[in-house]
Amino acid sequence: MPETVLSVDGLSRSFGGVRAVDGISFDVAEGEIMGVIGPNGAGKSTLFSLIAGSDRQDAGTVTVLGSRVDRFTPSRRSRLGLARTFQSSQVFGDSTVADNLAIAQVAHRTRTGPGRVAEMLDLLDLRGRENRRAGLLPVYEQQRLAIAMALMSGPRLLLLDEPSGGLVEQEVADLGALLRRVNATGVTLVVIDHKMRLMTSLCDRILVMASGAPLALGTPAEVTADAAVRAAYLGERGEPA
Amino acid sequence: MELFTQTLANGVMLGSIYALVAAGLALVFGVMDIPQFAFGAHAMIGGYLTWWVGGETGSYWLGLLVAVAALAALGVITHAAVFDQLRKAPSETLFIAAFGLVMVLQGAAQVIWGPDPRSVEEAVPGSITIAGATITYQRLIIIGVAVALFVGLHLFLTRTLTGLSVRAAAQSRTGAQAVGLRPRAVGLLAMAIGSALAGLAGALLVPISQAYPTVGDPLAIKAFVVIVLAGMGSVNGAVVGGIVLGAVEAFGAAYLSLEWRDAYPVLLLILVLVVRPQGLFGKEAVAWR
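ok -> structure tokens follow
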């Protein structure tokens, strides 16, 4: 039976009177690709912030690879094997692609060796871009660089927040294939995205959130067939599954 | 021609000192948004330590090294005791804390060393004549050490993993945290470097300016003008801006009026801000461009 890489139990976070995340629980098994969908404001990015440690929950627990990480800083969670990318690219725009990857490895050199940069350049199709300034790269290349940087730590679990944001259709399809390649290297993925075609083709299971609360959790076929989900989300967005 | 060469040498010397303090200020502001005005007072302490250790041992250079090391330590202590405690405080609080530190350091200097100026012998007495201008060796030393420092700082920030991490933290704190860097440790390092640079500026300047409790005040003001001029947080810009400011001040004093000497940099600042509100090199707070 595969190891549980991430376990979220009863996670809640309020901002003033608004419950941004409200009693979310789920487990992610090693090697799995888990999706998180929901309308804007459903609490998806807040959920990621709670898991990654950039925000602190009001209630509930987060366990990564068997360790309770509730009180760990983001840096400590990162060293434990958790990595994330952001909705808006957090690459270091004034530095070159090669320097960005080197910086991303600084805290993890004991875990990943000197060949890691070359490995990531190949995996994320960034060969030939090493000396380009990251801030001048097209959106999709910046997104690939952000993923490569997250992988420099040699993580077991990668959280991807809207990786398809700003991409055209062909790039979204390419991204799906690329994420499967990343997953095949042994990295468990949790992905937030709005592009339903990408999510249903990529994910093993999908968690649907609405107003901070869990609405459904199941395979892509199960959640897209769920009447409550169709009413709350799919119907509203109108994009075919 | 003689006047021009003399003025240029004075301007570059003065500008090197401004650039040293401003580079540290830009680095600290870029990484942590802290307006560390106490770097002027740190330069003052650096001057006193050079006078004291140099006087006791008879070696100016030993005094300079002790000053740089002690100021790096003071930077770490100051950061841990004051700014790190205030890391969630609004920017106004950081501003006031920095000014408070200036008062504490000046008061301490007054109590320990008294109000009278302390003189330090030049490291290498004498002068050289270049294109008709007489330039003391001490001034050449200031320029030489500052240039070596800027080259070293540039190599550190662009060629070493630690330096790359400092630049990364300045560009995106969230991104730096996400890749496992410790922003607080990086901040501590930036503050140590900034304080050491200020201490070095004080140690280099003390044979020319003497040491007294308020000697660092004009340095702090000029360094602030430089980083606004250059674009907040731009270390490269701070170096260039420091030299430009020193030259403007020296040429204004020599060719226009000596009495307006301290006004020329501010007039230049106003002019630059009217034309380029983001400064000469900055667009936002960026540490190394």
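Chain B touches chain A at residues 161-162, 164-165, 167-168, 171-172, 174-183, 286, 288-289 (CB under 8 Å).
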